[in-house]
Q: What sequence folds into this?
């Protein structure tokens, strides 16, 4: 057990936190689990957005790969409303290297998904739960911050002028992109709900041990 709970102040503080977490709202919903479901769902959707972007980039590069090419083939274009560069083909070795980086990105996204959900679900104080969800959103912007700080301005301008890769998902049988993301989302949200209810049970047990319901009613 937690030795700090031997002090009456910590017992009262813990009881207040757990009581607020398990407080009933309108419709029989409890404040803590309801908030946890919202922030966990938002976190799952945030990760799915990143994974969807990775899938789009991977497929676009694979569709642009050319086995016999050894350099990236670019085309300069200019229209009445825009101008820039277009990638016509990508050498196979660069394509393989890009796919390896995409696998690393997916691994990082999966790790962040699991760690973020565990962190959010284990938080019992509602205000801290909301603050933790905001902190997680800053973590997802960390890569863009590093990019903006360290990339040379000339390279940043070149990338800005580069036209996005076209991506063509095969929709003849199933919307593959949506199916994959939907499946991952269902698994993530279902696991979150299970862990949230387990945490609620723990919170309720500790709350009742600190102050049984008959004493609170009295």
A:
């Amino acid at each position: 057990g937690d030795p700090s709970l031997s002090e009456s102040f910590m017992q009262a503080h813990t009881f207040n936190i757990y009581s607020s977490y398990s407080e009933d709202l309108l419709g029989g919903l409890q404040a803590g689990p309801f908030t946890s479901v919202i922030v966990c769902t938002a976190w799952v959707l945030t990760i799915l957005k990143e994974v969807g972007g990775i899938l789009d980039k991977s497929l676009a590069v694979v569709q642009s790969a050319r086995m016999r090419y050894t350099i990236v083939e670019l085309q300069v274009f200019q229209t009445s409303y825009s101008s820039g560069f277009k990638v016509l083909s990508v050498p196979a070795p660069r394509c393989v290297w890009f796919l390896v980086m995409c696998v690393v990105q997916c691994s990082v996204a999966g790790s962040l998904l699991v760690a973020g959900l565990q962190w959010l679900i284990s938080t019992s104080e509602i205000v801290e739960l909301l603050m933790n969800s905001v902190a997680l959103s800053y973590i997802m912007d960390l890569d863009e911050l590093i990019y903006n700080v360290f990339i040379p301005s000339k390279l940043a301008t070149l990338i800005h002028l580069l036209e996005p890769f076209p991506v063509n998902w095969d929709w003849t049988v199933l919307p593959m992109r949506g199916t994959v993301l939907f499946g991952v989302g269902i698994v993530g949200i279902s696991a979150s709900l299970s862990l949230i209810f387990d945490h609620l049970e723990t919170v309720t047990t500790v709350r009742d041990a600190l102050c049984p319901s008959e004493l609170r009613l009295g």
Observations:
- Residues 23-211 form one domain.
- The chain has one domain: 23-211.
- The mean pLDDT is 85.
- The helical segments are 8-21, 31-64, 92-121, 126-140, 142-150, 153-161, 176-210, 213-217.
